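User: I'm writing a short report section on ligand binding and want a predicted complex to refer to. Could you take this sequence and glutathione and write out the structure as tokens? A short remark afterwards would be nice.
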Amino acid sequence: MKLFHNPLSPNVRRVRLTAAVLGVELEEKKLEFAKGEHKSPAYLSLNPNGAVPTLVDGDFVLTESRSIMQYLASKKPESGLLPRDEAARADVTRWQFWDAAHFSPQMGTLGFEKMFKAMMGLGEPDSGKIQEALGNFRRYAAVLNKRLEGKDYIVGNAMTIADLTIASSLMYAQQLEVPLAEFPNVQAWFSRITALDGWKKTRAEKPVSPSGRTFDRADDFGGIRCGLGAPPREYAAVAAHQELEKFQTMSPGPSGAVSALRASRDFATGARLGRGV
Ligand SMILES: N[C@@H](CCC(=O)N[C@@H](CS)C(=O)NCC(=O)O)C(=O)O
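Assistant: Sure. The structure tokens for the complex follow:
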């Protein structure tokens, strides 16, 4: 099975983590976001959303991280990651949907405002959006905290993909300084998941600092934006920035100048058309 991915993505993390816990080997193909590989016609024919992850198993193409997790786990029912019991399985799915609808979007907003904007020169963080996301984070973390009262795992007494789903949404919890300590059951449970070998194995190659500065160039990250889809304008901005940087630091010759101008024009056109943010 082949997985198109980028290891910095929490949506990818949960799939790679599931495979690692199951001991399933995936052929991994990393997409370079800065080069727009996730928007190429070939990739869009697999995943029209132009996002990672995508799993290809023979003729079967599957997108959406949480459904990929179900698919992988159902190949090894003995693992218990996706329980055989119908009610338990529905409960696992419920928590995956809960994550997609309520929990992970808060982390997505915080990630965008606190890390990616700074990294990509997209302006100051919007404190209103940060406060709103933090408020929502507290609201939903309280729900999870209650659920984990007296329990080590979210569904039943053993680890399932519900745990791997939600823990992956917290991939950047430390860097984003979310108030996990206010939710001791969540914090203890999260430590349990991050202690897994699979968690360590699926760590992104480069850690992210609180200021986002670890990715010292936009092309290390290339405008990944979880959940909401990265606005085309951001890619155009990154491309324009890189081309102009080249133009300034090298002696580009006529073709360098042309590509710098073309990239800037694309960015300006995108902005004028109101594409993006
Ligand atoms: N609901 C999708 C979300 C996928 C998603 O948003 N992936 C992000 C990375 S975390 C991405 O590829 N963003 C690029 C884009 O949307 O342009 C899933 O769970 O797989």
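A remark for your report: The chain has eleven helices and four strands. The longest helix spans residues 86-119.
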